[in-house]
Fold this sequence. Notes:
CATH topology of chain A: MetI-like fold
Low-confidence stretches of chain B: none
Number of strands of chain B: 0
Mean pLDDT of chain B: 82
Largest sheet of chain A: none
Strand content of chain B: under 5%
Radius of gyration of chain B: 23 Å
CATH superfamily of chain A: MetI-like
CATH class of chain A: Mainly Alpha
Order of helices and strands of chain B: HHHHHHHHHHHHHH
Order of helices and strands of chain A: HHHHHHHHHHHHHH
Distance between the termini of chain A: 40 Å
Distance between the termini of chain B: 35 Å
Strand content of chain A: under 5%
Number of helices of chain A: 14
Helix content of chain B: 55-70%
Helix content of chain A: over 70%
Number of strands of chain A: 0
Oligomer: heterodimer
Largest sheet of chain B: none
CATH architecture of the largest domain in chain B: Orthogonal Bundle
CATH architecture of chain A: Orthogonal Bundle
CATH topology of the largest domain in chain B: MetI-like fold
Low-confidence stretches of chain A: 51-72
Shape of chain A: globular
Number of helices of chain B: 14
Amino acid sequence: MGGKTGFSLLCLLGPFFALWALFWLVPLGMGVDLSMQSPDFRPVHRDKVLPQNASAPNSFTFLDWRNPQQEMQENAPRYVGLDNFEKVITDSKFHKALSNTLTYVFGSIFVILPLAFALAVNLHALARIPRGILVFLLLIPGLALPGVLSTLFYLFFHGRTGALNQYLVIPLGFDPVNWMVDPSFIMPSLIIQSVWRWTGLVTLFFLCGLEAIPRWQFEVARIEGAGAWVRLRSILFPGVRHLALFASVFLVVDGFAAFSGAYNLLGGSGGIQDSGLLLVTYVYQVAFPGGSGRFDFPGAAAMSLLVAPVTAFLLFLLLQARKTFFSR
Amino acid sequence: MRRIPSCLFLGVAALICIYPFAWMFFSSFKTNKEIYQPTLFFPSDYEWDSYSGLWAGEFLSFFDYFLHSILVSGGQALLATFVAAGAGYAFSKISFRGSTWLFGVAVLVILVPKQALAVPLFEWMAWLGWQGDLWSLALPGAASGLGVIFFTQVFRKVPDELIDLAKVEGLSPVRTFVILLPLIAPALVTFCFLHFILSWQEHLLPLLMLDDDNMTLPIALAKLRDSSHRIPESVGMAAATLSLIPIVFLFGLCFRKMKTALVELSLS
């Protein structure tokens, strides 16, 4: 390994790690630093960017040096150690947001994966051209901006007259559901949204997995006279299991970062009784609270850092699941 | 005969996916009153008012935001693709000390998504004075951990003989990498497209970084549907329809290559 290889390595890996350091490591480090600061401490550069949104109800003039609140800010210690973490961990709203997010992530995965597998198996049986057209159509919801969801809000979830009530709930003989107002239906409607968005993409993954299965395996199954169940279990399912893992990782990561859908449906709030409060929404609420003007950046940073071990743990569980269920 | 349930299932699924968009398109001609009856499909009257209103910048300068979105997403997607491809090549085809360790470090990015780092990122950008700049959106997120994994897998499938041949010819690894790029074109297109969608849909970072005269599409769409109902709902529908066009067009261009790349990847 000469100097030439070293230089090449620098050219190949350098750009990635430069971006990585600047826009991931530095913010992460700042997050750690921020999470230990007192919420009352405000560095100068933050005041420069925030004043126009800072519509604090307890607004005092910055010139009034005798204002006790300002004095307290000046004397406030900069670092408070792990207090913010303690505050977050004991915060019942944070627990709510965390459990909501977990429900959201697992709810979506458990609906999307079987549905996408069923779709892919059925698509696989079709001829090439209708198959291509159908996959294309299924994928369109995943391409649309989540903001588009806000417009579709009227179609699906609008009060009594929404499409879900008119076409599904009432014909089945149930009472119409008030989707966005009834706390027990806010989470299901968020999950429906996620299912509607991502099923197409996961179907595409699965379909490609199925298409990669060599033709002779089906021949053998046919000659052996294997039934549909055996075909499904020993040929089709193994064809997609690696992709299922990849899709789950994608959905976990995306679910934890979910913000836009809930923001559009619920307008930045957590919905009635916070039943639709997701983690990132809550972080946003804490950092940029609507009218209160109290930007609790340290609290928000502590919260963001607590997301990492949860995602890491979930991904670890997925990998364990792969070892026990998938590698046979 | 037994194909019928299967076709029915697929047909219903496709209808569920398409129907809302058709409704959205037709709703861009409707009056507010018609939109509030969601089961009504066709408008009574076709008026292009909402489109011309958007074009004239009556409510907000929609097409500026459109351009911002395209610049940010396109720039980020291209950058992310080539940067991740380079790293993937180095990790799969060059053996060097600390390669496993570096790979692990690069993949850590997945664990803390950039949305969770939004607040410190906001601080960092404010400190740099980049806040409000389109760069502050395009650059974070260009280092994609998923991309490094993806391209490491892709380059593993490229036969070693090609690289040995290049070595015999006396090419440096960087030249070899550049020469190999056309070979993995489907994978490049696939990743670029997926990243484009993800950054096209990004909502939180632009919400934090940009101010009112410098928005991107997701924010503009959310603004158009603000709670005061000053703006006719049909304008929101028209904007949503327009926002869908470039991405569906791009998708149509990439679809074949995407399928090729994904099938090749799952052949193992």
